[in-house]
């Protein structure tokens, strides 16, 4: 099989490429240059697509014995990931740029180019597994055995077609130390290279500063949940639902309890803060559903809303018409649909949680699991 191996310059992608070559595939390595600043340097574990990263990827490819190229995808990355990040924050939403990068760059732009060049699959160093033990017998996306590094959440938006044309050789490793040891045994110089973290295009880690530099200051008011003005801010883009620190409030709550961001309204430039209880919800509403298999109301699942958060036991309450199974709805679905008089099918996915969770923000990604298998991903619109 002809395989295009995405090589970031880190240890994970280097070992993945080596494993693919060892398996007998015809492997070509490619480094995606995503930063418009070609002279950018790494700062510890921060930064992406730096000069050092490209050089490390080239050395790894040479060691493995595979051809290596650098592809300039900086325009795609800026337009599809960075601009999306800025526009979502400007709209009072909380995006996950890693989800967008995987969806639009690594498994859209990259795979499109790979297809045009005649490659059969794309190989990456993500921690996830692809198996064929689902109900349909087709390739399905599963959690990695290394739960501390599991990336199935950020990969879920890629959809079943891309899964069928992907290789994730690291999914069966139980620890990162095992991956580093394999890199060392193979003579890959990146075996001790530190992991990257945070938002890769915010190299200094100052997300609020990055947003203000790009979106500008847009002062407004901070209100408590009674509507009283208790402070001011420089822009709603500096806040996310559930945020506790950095609110800039000098006036304490009457009961002395911590206050959290519970609502953001960019149109009025108002940020509302309140008690933690106001953040709790037991129902999620999402759109832009990507299904790996048919969904049905009443089905028990686990729901996850953060890349490294815990999955919560839940039940699907309502599904978009295109995602529904052909079978008759369950009793639970009938009860929920009876509560609305509108006969038109809903474009939304509604999920009820067994226990309430806090900090649900529009723009976050909702991923549904059946055991360790991904069954759907969607974009959260609001909490009910």
Give the SSE map.
Elements lengths: L1 E5 L4 H12 L3 E8 L17 H14 L3 E5 L1 H17 L6 H20 L4 E3 L4 E4 L8 E4 L8 H4 L3 H5 L2 E2 L8 H10 L21 H9 L4 E5 L4 E5 L26 E6 L4 E5 L6 E11 L8 E5 L7 E7 L12 H8 L10 E9 L7 E6 L2 E11 L1
Parallel strand pairs: 1-2, 1-4, 2-3, 4-7, 8-11
Antiparallel strand pairs: 5-6, 8-9, 10-11, 12-15, 12-17, 13-14, 13-16, 14-15, 16-17
Helix pairs in contact: 1-2, 1-7, 3-4
Organism: Brachybacterium tyrofermentans
Function: Catalyzes the 2-thiolation of uridine at the wobble position (U34) of tRNA, leading to the formation of s(2)U34.
Family: Belongs to the MnmA/TRMU family.
Summarize the structure.
By secondary structure, the protein is α/β, with parallel strands linked by helices. 26% of the residues lie in helices and 26% in strands.
General description of the model:
With 384 residues, this protein is α/β, with parallel strands linked by helices. It folds into three domains: 2-192, HUPs (Rossmann fold), CATH 3.40.50; 217-278, Adenine nucleotide alpha hydrolases-like domains (SH3 type barrels, Roll); 280-383, Elongation Factor Tu (Ef-tu), domain 3, CATH 2.40.30.10. Helices cover 26% and strands 26% of the residues. It has nine helices and 17 strands. It has helices at 11-22, 51-64, 74-90, 97-116, 152-155, 159-163, 176-185, 207-215, 331-338, and strands at residues 2-6, 26-33, 68-72, 121-123, 128-131, 140-143, 166-167, 220-224, 229-233, 260-265, 270-274, 281-291, 300-304, 312-318, 349-357, 365-370, 373-383. Strand 5 (128-131) and strand 6 form a beta hairpin. The termini are far apart. The relative contact order is 0.13. The model is unreliable at 325-345 (pLDDT under 50). Residues 149-151 are annotated as: Interaction with tRNA. The record marks 126, 364 as: Interaction with tRNA. This is tRNA-specific 2-thiouridylase MnmA.
């Amino acid at each position: 099989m002809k395989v295009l191996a995405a090589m970031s310059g880190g240890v994970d992608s280097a070992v993945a490429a080596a494993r693919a070559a060892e398996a007998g595939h015809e492997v070509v390595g490619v480094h995606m240059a995503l930063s418009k600043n070609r002279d950018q340097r790494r700062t510890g574990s921060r930064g992406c697509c730096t000069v050092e990263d490209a050089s490390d990827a080239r050395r790894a490819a040479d060691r493995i014995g595979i051809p290596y190229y650098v592809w300039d995808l900086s325009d795609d990355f800026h337009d599809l990931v960075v601009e999306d990040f800025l526009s979502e924050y400007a709209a009072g939403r909380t995006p996950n740029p890693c989800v967008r990068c995987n969806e639009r760059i690594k498994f859209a732009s990259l795979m499109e180019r790979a297809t045009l060049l005649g490659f059969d699959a794309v190989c990456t160093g993500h921690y996830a597994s692809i198996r064929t033990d689902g109900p349909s017998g087709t390739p399905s996306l599963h959690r990695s055995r290394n739960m501390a590094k599991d990336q199935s959440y950020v990969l879920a938006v890629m959809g079943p077609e891309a899964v069928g044309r992907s290789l994730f050789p690291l999914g069966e490793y139980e620890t990162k130390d095992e991956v580093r040891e394999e890199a060392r045994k193979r003579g890959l110089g990146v075996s001790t290279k530190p992991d990257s973290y945070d938002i890769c295009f915010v190299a200094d880690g100052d997300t609020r500063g990055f947003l203000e530099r790009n979106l500008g200051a847009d002062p407004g008011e901070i209100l408590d949940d009674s509507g009283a003005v208790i402070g001011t801010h420089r822009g709603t883009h500096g806040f996310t639902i559930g945020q506790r620190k950095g609110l800039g409030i000098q006036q304490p709550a009457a009961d002395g309890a911590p206050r959290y961001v519970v609502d953001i309204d960019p149109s009025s430039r108002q940020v509302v803060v309140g008690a933690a209880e106001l953040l709790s919800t037991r129902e999620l509403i999402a759109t832009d559903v990507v299904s790996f298999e048919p969904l049905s109301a009443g089905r028990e699942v686990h729901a996850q809303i953060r890349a490294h958060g815990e999955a919560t036991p839940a039940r699907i309450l309502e599904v978009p018409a295109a995602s529904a199974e052909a079978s008759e709805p369950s009793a639970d679905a009938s009860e929920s649909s009876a509560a609305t008089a509108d006969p038109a099918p809903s474009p939304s996915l509604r999920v009820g949680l067994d226990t309430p969770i806090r900090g649900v923000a529009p723009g976050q990604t909702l991923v549904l699991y059946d055991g360790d298998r991904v069954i759907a991903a969607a974009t959260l619109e609001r909490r009910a």
